[in-house]
Amino acid sequence: MRSLVEMYLDVEAATFTFPDVLEKILKFDLPPEHLFNVFFAFTTKYIPKETKESAQIYDLFRLLLQYHDPQISSHLDSLKYSPYCYASLWFSTILAGSVDDGVCKALWELYIEKGDPFLIFYMALVLVINARDQLLQVGLEHRESLGLRN
């Protein structure tokens, strides 16, 4: 592992900021000669360069969510939950920090197969839309606790 990180830091002239990604890759039992290539591909091609709060990826994600599910997008906005609040870990780790190893491996195999760096947007949409009912309840429960009606 140390040699992998050192090689990455030499090639990228960067500081190490991807421990979740590296941890998942090491669990996949890849041959040592493939470890660096997979890690390098994920950290340079698939993980967005900017994941700080003001990054444009969150504006793009909000637009995609507005298009695919305007109600949940509006609901999250009304609760003042920006995409950064709920999706930053998804984008910055390509879901490594949010899903178990088996799911992560399946999703990453899809990433490698498709070679599409924008796939994370659609995966994030699936996560939000699949949790739609629970997310809509969040506001309802809060309103009821305040004694308000729709």
From TrEMBL:
<feature type="domain" description="Rab-GAP TBC">
    <location>
        <begin position="1"/>
        <end position="115"/>
    </location>
</feature>
<dbReference type="GO" id="GO:0005802">
    <property type="term" value="C:trans-Golgi network"/>
</dbReference>
<dbReference type="GO" id="GO:0005829">
    <property type="term" value="C:cytosol"/>
</dbReference>
<dbReference type="InterPro" id="IPR000195">
    <property type="entry name" value="Rab-GAP-TBC_dom"/>
</dbReference>
<dbReference type="InterPro" id="IPR035969">
    <property type="entry name" value="Rab-GAP_TBC_sf"/>
</dbReference>
<dbReference type="InterPro" id="IPR039755">
    <property type="entry name" value="TBC1D23"/>
</dbReference>
<protein>
    <recommendedName>
        <fullName>Rab-GAP TBC domain-containing protein</fullName>
    </recommendedName>
</protein>
<dbReference type="Pfam" id="PF00566">
    <property type="entry name" value="RabGAP-TBC"/>
</dbReference>
<dbReference type="GO" id="GO:0099041">
    <property type="term" value="P:vesicle tethering to Golgi"/>
</dbReference>
<dbReference type="GO" id="GO:0042147">
    <property type="term" value="P:retrograde transport, endosome to Golgi"/>
</dbReference>
